[in-house]
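Q: Make up one entry.
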Amino acid sequence: MAFAPDHDVPIPYMQRTRDYYVALGYANPYRWAHFADVPFTPLAKPLAESRLALITTAAPYQPGGGGQGPGAQYNAAAQSYKVYSDGTDAVPDLRISHVGYDRIHTTAEDPNSWFPLARLRECVKAGRIGALTPRFHGAPTNRSQRVTMEADAPALLQRCREDGADVALLVPN
């Protein structure tokens, strides 16, 4: 067994994000949210009997909003600044050009990697998940921890409760 070559190392996402914030003109580098006490709640019932809510940071396609397809350059104009919801009965046209992901090593051509609604529907059919909520929910990516904690997260929780979710799957992009 041989070691990987020296250039084969993890991508330093945290440092890249900090550097990116400074390059955007923010006075301070990005500070990752880190909590000393993180609550954990075990499932109240098996996943095969649970109703699952899907939460994504993907945003609806915006015609006229510039490049948004697979491999598109970062496009801040394509992001959503408000929590949104849509039905889980069909797979909508969502995109991820508004998030900072590694465009050198990833193509983003497989939407199931960042919005697995079709795969989750297969899991329901196979009996691995009890049901999906009637809606999925979109979480904004506006880079504000304050707005996320004070507005977006409570709105997402309220929508999950309205839909009778037992468990939520957050798929960040």
